[in-house]
Amino acid sequence: MGEQEYDKEQLRILRNAFKAFDQENEGFIETSNVQTILEMLGQKLEDKVIKNLIMEQDKAKTGKLNFSQFCALAARFVEVEEDAEAVARELKEAFRVYDKEGKGYLTVKVLRDILHELDDKLSNNELDMIIEEIDADGSGTVDFDEFMTVMQG
After folding, report:
1. Could you read off the pLDDT of 77-90 as tens digits, one per residue?
2. Residue 54 sits in which domain range?
């Protein structure tokens, strides 16, 4: 997996973590540091899981990982917060897709379908409670601001 396949912010975090343990600038880190690095990234994994992750990347059993191998191992554990503007754009686009007639609102039935798609484990009662909270005025419709509130949790 090449560096271009990672988010810029994700790459920055991975590079900083790698450099912190490659202080001699040798281009590799010791596999014995992987657990510490992952803990710095907020991941507490069992020793067995860590060993398996390392074995996936250090097939030659050198006890070292280069940056590319480290990224392949650690990238899945680096969560990048999306900026609010990007989230708002995505939600606006999603709203537009569901507001097929361009009326500026969604019916609660459409919202129910969306919520069910996002979490099919929600019961009808839970969906009713969510919708009742969102559609506080009982209009049977949800405008974009209400939609944003729901989708952002």
Report:
1. 887 666 667 777 88
2. 3-77
